[in-house]
Amino acid sequence: PGVTAGKAAEMEVVAVPSLPKQSHLYTAADEVINSLLDLQLEKWGLPPFADCKS
């Protein structure tokens, strides 16, 4: 899976599982979120999302 590949490449990994019951597949991730809308880019040193409702 992507989490394993990302960690093998020594990257920080944020997982967005499509099947919550398989949470054991994501234990190596640095963060697990339920939706990409929950992603806080600032936490990872990136600029925040621009609000599309301008």
From TrEMBL:
InterPro entries: HAD_sf (IPR023214). One of its GO terms (biological process) is glycerol biosynthetic process. One of its GO terms (molecular function) is sn-glycerol 3-phosphatase activity. Transmembrane segments: none annotated. PANTHER family: 2-DEOXYGLUCOSE-6-PHOSPHATE PHOSPHATASE 2, OS01G0757900 PROTEIN. This is Pseudouridine-5'-monophosphatase-like. It comes from Trifolium medium. The lineage of its organism: Eukaryota, Viridiplantae, Streptophyta, Embryophyta, Tracheophyta.
